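tool=predict chain=A
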Amino acid sequence: DVGGIEGLIPISEISWGRVEDINHSLSVSQKVDVVIKKLDWESNKFSFSLKEALPDPWEDIGKKYPEGSSHTGKVERLVPFGAFVTLEPGIDGLIHISELGKGNRINHPREVLEVNQTVEVKILKVDQEGKRLSLAIGSDDPDSEEYDDYSEHIATTSSKSSGSFGTLGDLLRDKMKKK
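tool=predict ok
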């Protein structure tokens, strides 16, 4: 209700981040500042935005998350082409599947990551205009303990990928071991 006009805040206009459950963000009778998105007087439909009244987290993104810097984030979603990691509300980046194998081919990001897992990521590329971050997993420092743990995990899981027989090289190596 804005001055006697009732309108709708679409779920995509509540926050810069993903909103799964609106009840975690808003409650009935809560006072909020909104921006008017659309006024349709003929059909009596009005649309507002809560997120546009908030600061845009992508402003000056390159200063907060410069290319080459490392940060901690949480894995939000796993998709066939990679993993989306949230660095802060409204700031998600993608670790492409090619970055997850560290030289070994994997079939799905779930082979090395889990949803809600906390991970160390490196910023590969910042696209402020497109609101996209390209990320890589962990540290590139081969002396780091995290790198060793990750490399060991990849080595043990790459041949156990779910629903596949492995690569042709894996099959040939196993055949040669049996001889």
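Strands lie at 35-40, 45-49, 70-79, 82-88, 91-96, 118-127, 132-137. Confidence is low (pLDDT under 50) at residues 157-163.
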